[in-house]
Structures are given as C-alpha cells and as structure tokens.
Design goal:
The chain is α/β, with parallel strands linked by helices and 271 residues long. The protein has nine helices and five strands, in the order βαβαβαβαβααααα. It folds into two domains: 8-128, Response regulator (Rossmann fold, 3-Layer(aba) Sandwich); 154-253. Helix 2 (39-47) runs parallel beside helix 3, helix 7 runs antiparallel to helix 8 (214-226) and helix 7 packs parallel to helix 9 (232-253).
C-alpha cells in the first residue's frame, strides 16, 4: 500500500546490501531515499542536502565503523537550524531494552529492529512525521537452542518488495557473504575478549535476520547483548555455539560444494 505522504529519507548504513534493501522498501512505499555509508557522510548530507531538498527523516544504523549512529545523532542535534530537529529512526540488530535506552539518550526518536519489515517501517515513519497509524508490537526475545534454523524455506529466504527474483538472489548472496565474513572475524582468535566479539555478533545478527535465519539471529543477538556480563568461560562457550549455528545456517542456504564467499551459488530467491 503506497504511503499517504511521500518522504525524503536519508539512510546511513555501512553494509551496501542493507542500503539496497532499505531503498527498495522505501521506494515501494512511495518515499525517496538518499543512501550514505557512515555517520560522517550523514552529517554532511543533512548540512547540505543533495539537490537542496531537506530530509524528512533519517534512517540511522547504530553500529558503523568510523562515526557510528549514536555519535552522528549527537552531532545532528547540535547542528544549527531545522536540521537539528530531523527525526532519527535507529535501525539495529539489537533489540535489548538497554540498547533502546542508549539510542534515546543519544537523541534518536524511535527504534526499529533488523531485519526491517516493510509495514513496521511504514508505521514508524508515519509516527515520526505526523501521519500516524498503528504499529506492530515487537516480538519478545527468546532463547535460540530450540528455534528453527530458518523461518522460511531456503527458496524464499529473501523477499524484498520492488526487487525481481534475480536481483533478490544476488542480494541474498551478499548477505551470505556478510555472514561468512562476520563468522570469520568471530573465530579469528581464541580466546577472544568480549568487546571484540560484539561487532562481529552484530553483523551476524543483521545478516541472519534479513535472510530469516532465526536461530542464528537470536544467538548472535544474545552474544552481542550479554558477552560483557558473562564470565570469560561462558562468553567463549556462547561464541562457539554461535559459530556452530552460523556454519549450519550457511550450509542450509547454499548448495553442497559451495566453495566460499567469492563462489556462492545461492539457493534463495524473491517470492
């Protein structure tokens, strides 16, 4: 269903595939999108909007290298004039209460968990811009051991309105490569300090959730949210469990014999 009010949305995310998904979702809802790769570029775009058209909303990834979404939002709130008051919608794989509170403290107006669901995005944008309509409630977090590996069949693991099946298949390969790279980072050293696990767990959670990899997304979120509070032994054990789920997930989403991140033949397509 098209949006009732067309918005000009600034999207900041360091993962190119996430930008493709965000643009497709926004444009399918009648909005326009300008995409940037980090917080510093988002600040530049707000200070001098391309084409001179101010942005109505910022869709801001929280964890990005360089200037992250939290620092970018703090700086947005210090800008002169109307740009300082632009609504900022935090987008992150983290859905823990403390993460939401941190986003609010930085000046963000609302929080949207990855993967971005089209109707939830439309509802959040409507609330932030005065075109309100009911929003779906966020599901409660659950343990991961008994969750299904995939919430959708591999053949329908990526469904993005506005993308044809071949484009969705290619994009799914990007998310699988993102999962592989994040898992490689997570296993790079053993033992690994908790602070070093969190960025890789964040990457895993985002890519897995987008592909409907329910067990991996939940496990990675648990590692991201709890690693610092765990004993070192417990954190290492959870890291190993996440890596095992990651390997099982990649195997389920790629055919037998897939050779690696540069040679994935993806068994996924748009519905």
């Amino acid at each position: 269903m098209p949006a009732r009010k067309a918005l000009h949305v600034l999207v900041a995310d360091d993962v190119p595939a996430n930008l493709v998904v965000a643009r497709a979702l926004l444009e399918s809802a009648g909005h326009s999108a300008h995409c940037v790769a980090d917080g510093a570029l988002a600040l530049d775009a707000l200070a001098e909007p391309p084409g001179g058209r101010p942005f109505d909303v910022v869709l801001m990834d929280v964890m990005m290298p360089g200037m992250d979404g939290l620092e970018a939002t703090r700086r947005i709130r210090a800008l002169p004039g109307p740009a300082a008051r632009v609504p900022v919608l935090a987008v992150t794989a983290s859905a823990f209460a403390e993460d939401v509170a941190t986003c609010r403290e930085a000046g963000m107006d609302a929080h949207l968990a990855k993967p971005i669901e089209r109707e939830a995005l439309i509802a959040a944008l409507a609330r932030l811009t005065g075109d309100a309509r009911p929003a779906p409630e966020a599901p409660e977090a659950a343990g991961f051991a008994d969750l299904p590996l995939l919430s959708r069949p591999p053949g329908a693991a990526l469904v993005v309105p506005g993308l044809d099946p071949e484009a969705a298949r290619s994009l799914a390969g990007e998310f699988i490569r993102e999962m592989r790279e994040a898992a490689d980072q997570l296993r790079a050293t053993a033992p690994m300090p908790a602070d070093h696990m969190i960025p890789s767990a964040h990457r895993l959670a985002g890519a897995a959730a987008t592909l409907g990899a329910t067990r991996l997304a939940t496990a990675a979120r648990q590692l991201q949210g709890e690693a610092r509070q765990m004993t070192p032994e417990a954190a290492q054990a959870l890291r190993a469990a996440v890596l095992a789920v990651a390997a099982e997930t990649v195997a389920a989403l790629t055919p037998e014999g897939s050779a690696g991140p540069e040679g994935d033949t993806v068994r996924v397509a748009a519905a």
